[in-house]
Design brief:
Blueprint (H helix, E strand, L loop, with lengths): L1 H22 L2 H10 L4 H18 L7 H27 L5
Length: about 100
C-alpha cells in the first residue's frame, strides 16, 4: 500500500501543476464556476491537500533512495503549492 501511495502521489503532484495552468485560463474558469459553483483554485487547493496526505502515507513505502526522493519531493512540492494556493485564496480574498 505504501509503495502504491508513494508513486501515485508523485504522479498526482505533476497533475496538480498542470491543473494550475488550466485553472489560470479564463474560459475554463467560467465554465467550472457555472458548472460546479466553486472556483477552480479552491478545487485545486483541496486536491493538493489530498495529494499531501497521500504523500505522507507514501513515506511508509520508502525502500530505497529513489522512493525516498519521490516522497520528499511530493510532500515538499505539495506543501509549497498548498501554501501558495492558501495565500491566494485567503489573503488574496478570492472567496469574496
Amino acid at each position: 500500500m505504501g509503495t502504491f501511495c508513494n508513486r501515485f502521489s508523485f504522479y498526482l503532484t505533476f497533475y496538480s501543476l498542470g491543473f494550475i495552468l488550466l485553472a489560470s485560463s479564463n474560459s475554463l474558469k467560467e465554465r467550472i464556476l457555472r458548472w460546479i459553483g466553486i472556483h477552480p483554485l479552491q478545487l485545486l487547493f483541496y486536491f493538493t491537500l489530498i495529494v499531501l496526505i497521500i504523500g505522507i502515507i507514501g513515506f511508509t513505502g520508502v525502500n530505497n533512495w529513489s522512493s525516498a526522493f519521490r516522497s520528499i519531493f511530493t510532500v515538499g512540492f505539495s506543501l509549497v503549492l498548498t501554501a501558495f494556493l492558501a495565500y491566494i485564496i485567503f489573503v488574496g480574498q478570492l472567496l469574496q
